[in-house]
Structures are given as C-alpha cells and as structure tokens.
# Entry
Amino acid sequence: MGNILDYYERFHGITEVGIFGFCWGGKVSTLASTDFPLIKVAGLVHPSSVTEEMIEAADTPMYLFPCLDDPDMVGRTPDRLQSFLINELN
# Structure
C-alpha cells in the first residue's frame, strides 16, 4: 500500500486520501490509518477483529458502522472519532 500511496503523492500531487473497509478490510483500514500519514480519514463497516487499541492508535477521524451482532463501539472510542451504530438493515 505504501508504494501505491507514494506513487500518487509523487507523480500526481495527491496529499490526502481516505480509506474504506468492510469486514476484514476494516482492520486493514485501521492499521493503514496508523501506518500511512497520507490517509486522513477512514470508514469501517462491520469491522472484523478491530480493537479499541487499534482505533486509538490511528491518528485519523473514523466513521464506525458496526452491525447488529458486532461489539458496541459507540461511546467507547476517543472523542475525536465519530461513531454510528447500525441496529438493523431493512
């Protein structure tokens, strides 16, 4: 991922990107937000194996969309993170 971000920054002048992940991609998005300063925001839907510690280590705003059977993430993350809980899909 670092090579891709570096390419777009160097050859296209991209200085900020967002990342979005579903399920395991939520974990990848969280870890990438920690490792790559070019990533300025992340969105996670039904994140799998994402811990509070991982979220706190990421220095980006995140939209967290856990599903009905996922752990409740509302109110358990730092104030800089905005959380939304999806209770049911109709």
Remarks:
- Strands lie at 17-22, 39-45, 62-65, 82-83.
